[in-house]
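Narrative progress, year one. The postdoctoral researcher (J.K.) led the effort to move from monomer predictions toward full complexes, under supervision of the PI. The following entry was the first complex the group processed end to end, covering 674 residues in total.
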Amino acid sequence: MKIAIDAMGGDKAPHPIVEGVVQAASLVREGTEIILVGQESVIRRELKSRFMPRELPISVVHASQVVGMDEAPAIAMRKKRDSSIMVAVDLLKRGQADAFVSAGNTGAVMAAALVELGRLKGVSRPAIASLFPTERDAVVVLDVGANASCKAVHLYQFGVMGATYASHILRRRRPKVGLLSIGEESSKGNEATVKAHQMLSHSPLNFVGNIEGRDILRGNVDVAVCDGFVGNVVLKFTESIDGLLTAQLRRYVMSRLRYRLGAHLLMPALLAFRRDLDYAEYGGVPLLGLNGVCIICHGGSSAKAIRKAIAVAQQMVKADVNSGILRQLQENGGMKK
Amino acid sequence: MKIAIDAMGGDKAPHPIVEGVVQAASLVREGTEIILVGQESVIRRELKSRFMPRELPISVVHASQVVGMDEAPAIAMRKKRDSSIMVAVDLLKRGQADAFVSAGNTGAVMAAALVELGRLKGVSRPAIASLFPTERDAVVVLDVGANASCKAVHLYQFGVMGATYASHILRRRRPKVGLLSIGEESSKGNEATVKAHQMLSHSPLNFVGNIEGRDILRGNVDVAVCDGFVGNVVLKFTESIDGLLTAQLRRYVMSRLRYRLGAHLLMPALLAFRRDLDYAEYGGVPLLGLNGVCIICHGGSSAKAIRKAIAVAQQMVKADVNSGILRQLQENGGMKK
């Protein structure tokens, strides 16, 4: 198995990327190779500065250009044909790599993957699937940002893709799929959700009906389906909960010794809560529905996050999630009414 | 000032409603009267069972019917003309009350208020404005559930209404208005937000541009504008954060004495965080844009929440928020392009 990784993508690239790759390569099984894609001299220098006890399965493929984190995806696609993103995606296209991992410009990664690799047969819109912590086990929420507005059929397909991910990667049996809306009744929501509710009800999926905002963290479902606008708002909202808790605790901790002591004793638990809410901790999130495996990481990813993202890519390839999605869509009828 | 309250609305009505009214009536200034609307015999019995040190400014208006919490609003409107909701709204319509407070069926309250009172001139869609806690001061988020899908002009008007609420009730000077989207650039979002961004930019409002999910709790703005689908999902999501924290802490607390002690010492701070996140604590939220003052409470409202909701109603009437909205819309041009 070969995993291509964008060495130049991310706020602090290539440092944490190369570090994460070295960590991952020390752990992978025989037969797995990690390909660092980017400016070769820069990457080689980074690699050389690291102590490696043995030769690791890491190779380098040169790409002369770098897409900036804020660059417009369409322009980057047109003007930077030799960017690390384009070269890496091209490796997948030519069968020289099985998966692509990037902490770079998400829009550019999505655009390149969509144009060069194309969609799985029957999929109208790829979606980003993120894991959220819950009171029980993690829940897959999708889409969290690839599609700002969605039709019913897109939401329905997100349900199929999310369920496949939950069964293949999270090992949930008959994963429960919920449709995020603003009331439990099937008539509640907007035009797209009301129609998607019907489609999901008539599918072989284990569809439990509409869920509400509060059901995500409670862990009532394995998969929560929503459009990328709502999903992205909730994902980023989650990022800021820790700040509110910290601000609240600080006010108390400053006031009395009792609280200072309490916070000190309880710190590991509070840090675990913070870690739970930090989606960078999950490493990378898959862009589902593509004709290839593509893992997107947070721009600020640490080496640890990169290492985890590489593990997610390996799992995706090994479990062959894409074949599962294809099969599900054929069985369910991709456009079932 | 006369405030009508739906004595029959809410999961445990009329008990907490009457209790909240008695508490509120003990505190109001001279000249304010609270009108309990509902089944007179039931209300009188509730009132009699309470010790009142002096005669309180509470009156009762009879309404023979009760709208169930899950009843379809359209059917309730048609079949229950003598419900506590309809009779109370009618008091406003006939000028016999200045505000209406209800913990009853939200859809039925909105429908009755919209049909009987009508909208303020220039307002296309009334919106529910909720307060969210932040690291600094509370932020007004609207809409949180009245409109499942919105056009740009609706979002723009939510900005005007939210800013008026923030200045008149929260006493913010030149309140900062943000548009909730999925990227800071004006081009990011869906069709409605992209167009609303333009409209807000060209208005006299203190518009700070797009904000993202994480900006709500950080308190970067005074007003966050969104459609009722997104707002409702985030509102209900917020409700469930406390459950996640509790579940996380419980796992630790069970494992070691150290954590048990820490949690005990820190409990008041943790409870304050929970209280912050519990929107029932804010009492009631206004339905803005109506030709009248209408405050909606959580179905499970406690007596304290009802007391607070009555206080919000008083503030709304006293500060004459509706005249402020009318003035703002006229100045800004209700449909400005």
